[in-house]
Every structure is written in structure tokens, then in C-alpha cells.
Amino acid sequence: MIYEPAKIVSVTATHAWLETVGRQDCRRCAQGNGCGGAIMSRLVSRKSPRLRVALQPGMTPGDTVRLSLDESLIVRAAALVYLLPLLGLLTGAILGHSAGGEKMALAFGVSAFAAAWLVARVIAGRFIAGLQPGVTRL
What we know:
Elements: E1 2-11, E2 15-20, H1 27-31, H2 37-44, E3 50-54, E4 64-69, H3 71-100, H4 102-130, E5 134-137
Antiparallel strand pairs: 1-2, 1-4, 2-3, 4-5
Helix pairs in contact: 3-4
């Protein structure tokens, strides 16, 4: 399981909106003697996205909770998003090459990549919509 602290931002009648709490710098970074990872994370960090979860009894704005998500779900999502388009590219290139050389391999490969990428987006959208992290109190 992957765990991440989150803060309850707002509560509706049926749902709570959570925002993940940013990671703290390590002691060396806080003193200015670290590897620079904290500086890089500040440069590329964006505002945390808000998550909507089912309301549980006792949830109030300002509370801190712990989100949990099974690693296997993340691995499956990554495989879908990265491997399906790659397989489309390779399959299209092989079929195109057997059909008529390099230009056909390029055309078939790019076309199959684009088609597989669109399919992966549709499937991933449905898959991600079904993901719901577990929420426990800290």
C-alpha cells in the first residue's frame, strides 16, 4: 500500500474534498546542506489536486487523514498508459514493414501508436474514475 497524508478542505452532504499535504524536506535540506532535491521539488511542484471521497462520520474541514492506495493499481495504470501505445507502435511498424518497406513501417507505426494511445486514454479514464483511495484517520 502507498500512504499519503491529506487535509480535509471542505465537506458536503455526501462527500469530503481532500488536498494532499506536501512532503517535508529532509533535515539536511532544511539546513541547506542537502542534495538539492528540495529545491528541485519546489521548482516543479504545482498546487496539490483536490480529491473527492465519500464522507465518513466525524470528518470536518481542517482534519488530517491518511489516504491509501494499492500499488498494483498504479502498476496496472502505468502499464496501460505506457505499454499499450508502445505495443501499437511496434505492431504497426512490423505490419507496415511487411506490407511495403520503411515508409509503410513509419506510416503504420505512427497510425497504430496514435490509435493505441487513444484507446489507452479512454480505458485509463474509466479505470482512474473507478479508483477510490482508502481514507483513515491519523
